[in-house]
Model the fold of this input.
Amino acid sequence: MLSYREYILEISRCRSFSKASEKLHISQPWLSAAVKKTEQELGLPLFDRSTAPISLTEAGRYYVEQVEKIGHIEEEMERRFAEMRAGSGRRLRIGSSMFFCTYVLPELLTDFRGMHPDIQITLAEGEAENLAEKLQKGDLDLMIEVEEVKGRQLVTVPWASEEVIVAVPKRDPINRKLEEYAYDFDAFLKRDFPGGRRKTVPFSLFADEEFLILSEGHDIRGRSLAICRRAGFEPRVKLQLTQMMTAYYLVCEGQGVAFLRSTIPEFVAPTDSVLFYELDDPAAVRSIYLTYRENAEPLTLDLVKYLEERTAEA
Done:
């Protein structure tokens, strides 16, 4: 049915069998026979030969519209296959925290990998300052961090937001007077269901607790100190740690209280050894940003668009 489509398209453009045959470098009788064969297969005439110049019938107009669509699809396929053939060196280098690189991005990027099966994705862990330096030097293509990066020829856009929460060992005696505020593991994951929200905890009640605090350079460290000070006390620091996940697992072991990102329970195994509390403090909500260079490659911009769409769906 479509074997002679280029002939029919050319006739529709020229509105003449003779002119089309000249452009196609074939004889007019052969062209007329090819069109006739297609019309016989369709059971409908494509051209009204009674007009001067000739014109398309309703079936002819539909045929031409669909053939043009097919042509666009074929062009797109050829472009995409050409990208794949040349794409063995295409890569994306994404910098973020250990938590994002280990728990969030591998699953989040699954569909994007399916859309671009030829690319190589590298995840680089690090602190925000070091990642920003690598991004500006061209050693990274995209940075995902809780800090808004400022720099020449960099674009930073807000992507998502998350809460800062408090995790407390379940055996800690303080939980006995905080039952109306506490979430166990399952309740915390379901807190957005109707009736699932508890009241935010009066944080001044934690003044005598021992805290597991992240070390200098972590955004959540400054937020933790600010939350404690607004509650009227300086935290009693038992340990300073470089990784938030280490703090979480030490809470599970009963070693102290820690400030955590609210997304951690979504990526770890359920446990009955920890309780969670939400806070009513301006420092308890923070934004997550996507940062890339102004002259970013189209592939990087495709990833930014994909991540923004995924956030909109959530």
Remarks:
- The chain is about 40% helix and 20% strand.
- The CA atoms of residues 178 and 201 lie 8 Å apart.
- The longest helix spans residues 58-85.
